[in-house]
Amino acid sequence: MISKIDHLGIAVKSLDEAIPLWEKMLGVKCELIEEVPSQKVRTAFLKVGEVYIELLEATSEESAIAKYIEKNGEGVQHVAFQTTDLVAELAKSKEDGLRLIDEAPRPGAGGMNIAFLHPKSTRGVLTEFCAPNK
Ligand code: CO
């Protein structure tokens, strides 16, 4: 079951530049900076109420974030929903005819397992499901 929006993923060219901007804009401090080598990104998390802002900086030109910025410029790149059961959520999405980018959960930042749905099957919204990796 989906419980809430967990975070918005925002593609940025530079965390060093984006973090102070977002801290000032939201009046909160960045809680965590973490590199996720498998996704070729560095991430930074700022919490607003129940929801995180996930700033994403590419660490390689082959990163999905680098490609996103090349095509669209900086901006909101994905929406992540927290679920209690990631495997079940993926099975349901597949059953509903949605296209999965990840057939199985993989480790993301912040102690979460994650999986993406393809934006071509979700009317243009790159959608992430995530669940705490306990
Ligand atoms: Co995310």
Structure keywords:
134 residues; alpha+beta; 2,3-Dihydroxybiphenyl 1,2-Dioxygenase, domain 1; 3 helices; 8 strands; globular; binds cobalt (II) ion
Structure description:
This protein is α+β, with helices and mostly antiparallel strands. The protein has a single domain, classed as 2,3-Dihydroxybiphenyl 1,2-Dioxygenase, domain 1. 23% of the residues lie in helices and 42% in strands. It contains three helices and eight strands, in the order E-H-E-E-E-H-E-H-E-E-E. The chain has helices at 15-26, 64-72, 86-95, and strands at residues 2-11, 30-36, 41-48, 51-58, 75-83, 106-107, 112-117, 127-132. The protein has an eight-stranded mixed β-sheet with strand order 2-3-4-1-5-8-7-6. It is globular. The mean pLDDT is 96. It binds cobalt (II) ion.
Short description:
The chain has 134 residues and is of the alpha+beta class. The chain has helices at 15-26, 64-72, 86-95; strands at residues 2-11, 30-36, 41-48, 51-58, 75-83, 106-107, 112-117, 127-132. Bound molecules: cobalt (II) ion (CO).
* Rg for CA atoms: 14 Å
Low-confidence residue ranges: none
Q: Termini distance?
A: 17 Å
Number of helices: 3
Q: State which percent range the strand residues make up.
A: 35-45%
How confident is the prediction overall: mean pLDDT? 96
Q: How many strands?
A: 8
Helix and strand succession? EHEEEHEHEEE
- Please outline the major beta sheet: 8 strands, mixed
**Residues in helices, as a percent range:** 10-25%
Q: Which class in CATH terms?
A: Alpha Beta
Bound compounds, please? cobalt (II) ion
CATH architecture: Roll
